[in-house]
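task queued by scheduler; priority normal; single chain, no ligands, no partner chains; default sampling; output format set to structure tokens
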Amino acid sequence: MYYHIRGTLACTGPGFAVVDCGGVGYKAGVSRNTFKDLPGIGEYVKLLTHYVVREDAAELYGFLTQEELDCFRSMLTVSGVGPKAALAILSELTPDRFAAAVSAGDYKLLTLASGVGPKLAQRIVLELKGKLGDISELTGADVPQVRGNKAEAAAALEALGMKPREAAAAVASLDGDMSVEQLIAAALGKR
């Protein structure tokens, strides 16, 4: 239902972030890895989202990278893995470490996550092994993390049709003191 939310980071707490979008605060559950990479309160942020509706609740989960969102969604396809377990795993492992553990059959690494026992970890490895694709595609290691004006410029470049990786790479090496408009113009000048 919601692909992403972007706006001002209103507040954070253990396991969640609130993004103010046009006067509405959207609370999203986040992994510790996403939490530590969030910008400061009052700064621009864009979270890719996954919306879960259950009989007793409707919850939003947010991720800074497509790779983390893809890992989260792949875990939800495994019987017995819910959003909280998937988020716990992503709090302990980055997407590349998760993919490497699944590929290598190392279920014990997954048990580092709170609430994930050996049986569930083995099931995750068994059901996802060979389904995650090329680990290098999943890791996103070549995607620079951008914040502030650079993040806003990257979002504008995406709106103009650039792929997220291309947009982030286009502004990553530019001067962070430039305005959003200057960053966009400079990034488009590189093409």
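post-processing summary
- The mean pLDDT is 86.
- The chain has ten helices and five strands.
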